[in-house]
Amino acid sequence: MKLIKSKSNDRFQVxxxxxxxxxxxxxxxxxxxxxxxxxxPKNFLTASNIATIPRLVxxxxxxxxxxxxxxxxxxxxxxxxxxxxxVPRFAATASILPADLKGKIEIDDFxxxxxxxxxxxxxxxxxxxxxxxxxETIENTWETALFNTLRTGVAYAPNGxxxxxxxxxxxxxxxxxxxxxxxxxxxxxxxxxxESQIEAARAWIQDNLxxxxxxxxxxxxxxxxxxxxxxxxxxxxxxxxxxxxxxxxRLLIDGKPSQYGREYRQFEYGGVVFxxxxxxxxxxxxxxxxxxxKDATDMVRAYYxxxxxxFDLVNSTAKESYVxxxxxxxxxxxxxxxxxxxxxxxxxxRPNAVQRLELGDAxxxxxxxx
Length: 370
Description:
Helix content is 21%, strand content 27%.
């Protein structure tokens, strides 16, 4: 797209803004807005890219009565240990070429023309948005990885770069002795007691969480089909009609509005905040919801590692992400390369805190005679 701008002295300046003006894809920030991404415990590894995750599976013993002189019951022991998982690597690259500068002016001069003076684009002005795009991409990856770990219970590595000893993805429900449960909510049946069905899910999580304390901060990330059906159920509609249920509202984190200012369709019912997630809960997930005990202790832990191929980073403490600049590759003075990396693992260490709700089928209408 060539844009031509006329100046007061009838001179013309021509420049190309194909790369500067783009349509931006809508991206989700729900994990950050909920406080899940920022508030999880973070472990920064040193001199290793292997995350050592402590594992404790507690057993529950119950005694039965026995006559005196009989051997007492032997108690089952807790299963303690650790699991070692390699931290996967995620990387992106961008470059600056002479063509990115030649004949270009600063974008501010185009958006806010003040006089005839033209400021030509510089390496710094071209580099800044490229670096910012890499940083945004890394944050998008964290968001997607955390949600997928919560949704599937599996370590996020979509290309299979980390697998267990039998070549399968690391499943945190198996590692930590968790159980996947799916609870049906008959929101399409106007006569169904959906509050009791929701309470069954909350009660199961509480009873099987294994942390010894009561949790009460439940959220459900809902597909649109599930969210719409539940919000229209007569029992739910009557309960929330006075507070504008289903309207777009800012999320509350620790009782305060989310600092990011984004709004979601949401309502609170049955001790759970139901939030419509149009970004993640799509396809077959549209008729389901992920219910999370958000205040469960150490539900997720994050592990970060350092790049393995940089002398300056050997034996250093990891950071969440890195951006590297390489000038004059092969001394040809033709290209500047910008690489971004993040090496991270989100481990679902208390998997029973995350379970599924699914929308039940609509009841079959009764057959009536002619």
